[in-house]
Amino acid sequence: MKLKLLLLLFACTSPFLYSQTHKLLRGKVMSDNFVLENVDVINKDTQTGTRTNEKGEFILSASVNDSILFYVKDYNLKGIKLSLEDLETNNIIVRIDKKPEELKEVIIHRVDIDWEFDKKLERQKREEAGVRRRARALKVQGVNNGTIENGMDFAKIGKMLFGGLFKGKKEKAVDPEEFKEVAKTSFDEKFYTETLQLKKEEIEPFLTFCNFDPESKNTLSENSNDLILMDFLYKKSIEFKKIHAPD
Which residues are CB-contacts of 124 (< 8 A; sequence separation ≥ 6)? Predict the structure, then answer.
């Protein structure tokens, strides 16, 4: 009989005790002075939740020190721990930040311009203009001397355009230290120590390690660029760290 009375007393007082520790928390979710609708508001401790209405408002059962999470797509997740002041105020304002927009991948292509060819062409034009001026000065009116007036110097043009095609190609000698020099001049020390997480004294051995990889020569080709070189160095830094990792 006493047991039944205790159970009955506990059943009657439990809702009262719950109401004393949990209260209805009211608030509003905003971002940059705009209210946010359909934000998920979750009480992490009680595993209950709700959503904000069109005015950004919400009502949720909570108590002091409960962790409340606020989540909506395209915005950073926000979490707060309720204080007694929050519950007593019962009208909290929660501000969440919008995620920064991710830039699409940009591919940079190197374009080689033959500035020397442009200079030769400009010089050729000036020479042709001089020939025309001299021809006009020497021409006798009404007399045909069998020449072509203002004729172009095809020999010079052919030599300028195609002369290089018939010369024997010389193979470029590969400097075994060229890769290390390119890697040093392309990126500063901060790239190796902060981005690749190498120690200062490891930079030189690391570049020597990379130089022994035949793929390093591909990063020096005409079709290569700094992004390809950076990707190669990042991959090799992982291998380098594994080899030199302490047992």
Answer: 153, 156, 157, 160
**Whether the predicted pLDDT of 174 surpasses 90:** no
CB neighbourhood size of 216 (10 A): 21
CA 113 to chain centre: 28
Q: Classify residue 206 by burial, with Cβ atoms within 10 Å: 0-12, 13-18, 19+.
A: buried
d(CA 88, CA 107): 55
What letter does residue 191 receive in the DSSP assignment?
Answer: I
Q: Answer for the pair 71, 64: CB distance below 8 angstroms, yes or no.
A: no
pLDDT in the model for residue 135: 63
For residue 4, give the H/E element and its range: helix 2-21
* Residues 6+ away with beta carbon under 8 Å from 219: 179, 182, 228, 229, 232
Walk across the sheet containing 40-43 and list its strands: 48-51, 40-43, 67-71, 78-81
Model pTM? 0.37
**Contacts of 74 by beta carbon, 8 Å cutoff, 6+ apart:** 98, 99
Query: How does pLDDT run across 223-246, given as a tens digit for each residue?
Result: 778 888 888 999 999 999 888 877
189/202 Cα distance (integer angstroms) = 11
Q: Which pLDDT score, from 0 to 100, does residue 115 have?
A: 60
* Structure-block tokens of residue 189: 């020390």
**Sorting pLDDT into bands at 50, 70 and 90, what band is 107?**
confident
For the CA atoms of the chain, what is the radius of gyration?
39
Q: Is 71 exposed, middle or buried (0-12, 13-18, 19+ CB in 10 A)?
A: middle
